[in-house]
Specification:
By secondary structure, the protein is mostly beta strands. Helix content is about 10%, strand content about 50%. Strands 2-3-4-7-6-5 form a 6-stranded antiparallel beta barrel.
Length: about 100
């Protein structure tokens, strides 16, 4: 049974994640109104609070997010099983992520 409240849509957008002095630049795998999956071999720990910058087409968003889970995948399985992190978007009171989804 699906636990998500909102449907996930496959999108490949550039994303930068910052937590203090640590920074990861990667791509989204899918996006919903309240969360994103970031494809990455580098992971922040669950619970980490991040600054999230998403670039999609001509649009750019700066949001806050929290790592809900992380999954590493061996390089040998990188095609069939993507490693990365599930992020919950935390400060999107203006529904900017939803607007970006509708435009791109």
């Amino acid at each position: 049974m699906e636990k998500r409240k909102y449907q996930r849509i496959r999108k490949r957008w550039l994303v930068k994640l910052n937590s203090g002095s640590n920074c990861i630049q990667s791509f989204t795998g899918d996006v919903s109104k309240e969360g994103i999956f970031v494809v990455s071999t580098k992971l922040f720990p669950p619970g980490a609070v991040l600054k999230v910058e998403i670039s999609a087409g001509a649009g750019k968003l700066n949001l806050g997010g929290r790592v809900m889970w992380g999954r590493s995948a061996p390089v040998s399985q990188s095609i069939s099983r993507k490693g990365g992190m599930g992020l919950q978007i935390e400060n999107d009171s203006e529904s900017s992520l939803q607007s970006l989804l509708e435009k791109n």
